[in-house]
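Async update (no meeting this week)

Hi team, since we skipped the sync, here's where things stand on the single-chain job. The sequence we agreed to prioritize is pasted below, unchanged from the tracker. I ran it this morning and attached the output directly underneath so nobody has to dig for it. Comments welcome in thread, and please keep replies under the output.
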Amino acid sequence: MAPRRIRVERLIAVLGALVLALGVLVAWLVTRGGGLGGEPSVEERAGAQLRQHVGPEAVVRYTERGRRRAVCGYVSADDQLVVFISRPNRILLETDPLKAEFDEMLRDVCPGFLTRSPPVTPRPARPTSEPRVVF
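Output:
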């Protein structure tokens, strides 16, 4: 018997079908779960950074999303509540020695954080000296 030979055209067709099937599989994985590994949410990232920086007893009490993927919030550890700013590769606490940098970054990435809204003042009533005519 003659040895079997695989024709080049057939090999190209089989490899092409495998590449297409692999492409469809990867596209399905990416669209169904948000990626192959997925990136943690900004809140999860802040929690992980705080556990690493403050310790495993750190509990995130409140978070607000800021600009440029930043998160500002409160963390409690050792019976005190501390303000933090979390960036993708950096975390700053209110108690850090870089207080001026912390304040500047807080104003930059979380401008509405730690500010009170202005008090609501009642609007003055309309003068009733002129009769209103409604058609």
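Quick observations from my side:
The CA atoms of residues 49 and 90 lie 8 Å apart.
The beta strands are 59-65, 71-77, 80-87, 90-93.
Reply here if anything looks off.
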